[in-house]
């Protein structure tokens, strides 16, 4: 198969972790006889520095015409404490999500048997956790009307959802649930928010199309608690943009390291694959960042292109590296650790 993959390394540790995913994908391509043509493009602070904006048109062109987008991370500390900054790297991410129509963000949380002790949570609570948070990504309070009063002392952001936006996300949730344990949880705040009541109404109306799926409805505050108390109670969860942002950071604690969890952002034409961690500027350029979340994101990419064997080969080699102790310092517990690039080399060689 011939694949055109847009490569957006971004900022901080982005380029380092992306390099390892490229090594792994190239090894997969030669093993399974595919031809990958990588199309690098600028994004984030790197793009602001080069062309003055975080998601340039040229990058959008490259992404729109690719079969998939592999993305590192964006964000730079020089913008974080400067509320007056006119352009920010994160705006690039939001613009990209919107322009590419990446409406569904798939964020799985699972545990690795060899790393079960890395989580701050009790082993018996988390062992065997396997859930997916499906976060709506192009609507809600991230994209609703916002502003300031004239005297600038009042600010507002609005959480707006249309029935169609909810239906399209929920449809994906139902379909995923059908392929898994047939359990779907709609996470909202319907006891307070009108937009959440529309979520509930919409999902309830769809239940009859999927009679085999058992649907539950829970409030987001209660889920925040139960997610770390009983993560195994959940399978597929659907939720609004902001709720999903918060819950997926929380869920990453279950697996033990932010450096492990992959994600995909699904659009109608092209989808994007990225680690859930950020740009981790403190580690940038040091060759110490954990590349596994990005490598596992590449596995999701292959899976979505119906290349299941390729995806499995990546997951298997990642498990093998963990079992063999070929890990970066975040997982080494003071024992022997390997550089980011060494982990990538090992993975590529062992595919
Ligand atoms: C994420 C990030 C982004 C978000 C930021 C960087 C805009 O936290 O992908 O979860 O809030 O969506
Ligand atoms: Mn986030």
Give a brief rundown of this model.
The protein has 351 residues and is of the alpha/beta class.
Question: How would you describe the overall organization of this protein?
Answer:
This protein has 351 residues and is an alpha/beta fold. The protein has two domains: 1-102 and 267-351, 3-Layer(aba) Sandwich (Isopropylmalate Dehydrogenase), CATH 3.40.718; 103-147 and 155-259, Isopropylmalate Dehydrogenase. Helix content is 43%, strand content 19%. It contains 14 helices and twelve strands. The protein has a ten-stranded mixed β-sheet, with helices on both faces. Strand 8, helix 8 and strand 9 form a beta-alpha-beta unit. The two termini are 18 Å apart. Bound molecules: 3-isopropylmalic acid (IPM) and manganese (II) ion. Residues 245, 249 line the site of manganese (II) ion.
What distinguishing features does this structure have?
12 strands; 351 residues; Isopropylmalate Dehydrogenase; 2 domains; 14 helices; alpha/beta; binds 3-isopropylmalic acid
Chemical compounds bound to the protein: 3-isopropylmalic acid, manganese (II) ion
Tell me the CATH superfamily of the largest domain.
Isopropylmalate Dehydrogenase
Q: Tally the structural domains.
A: 2
Mean pLDDT across residues: 96
Instruction: Trace the largest sheet across and list its strands.
Output: 2-1-3-12-11-4-5-10-8-9
Q: What is the name of the CATH topology of the largest domain?
A: Isopropylmalate Dehydrogenase
* Tally of helical runs: 14
How would a crystallographer describe the biggest sheet?
A: 10 strands, mixed
How helical, in percent, are the residues?
40-55%
Order of helices and strands: EHEHHEHHEHEEEHEHEHEHEEHHHH
The total of beta strands comes to 12
Can you tell me the overall shape? globular
CATH level 1 class label of the largest domain = Alpha Beta
Distance between the termini: 18 Å
Which range does the strand content fall in?
15-25%
Low-confidence segments, given as residue ranges, are none
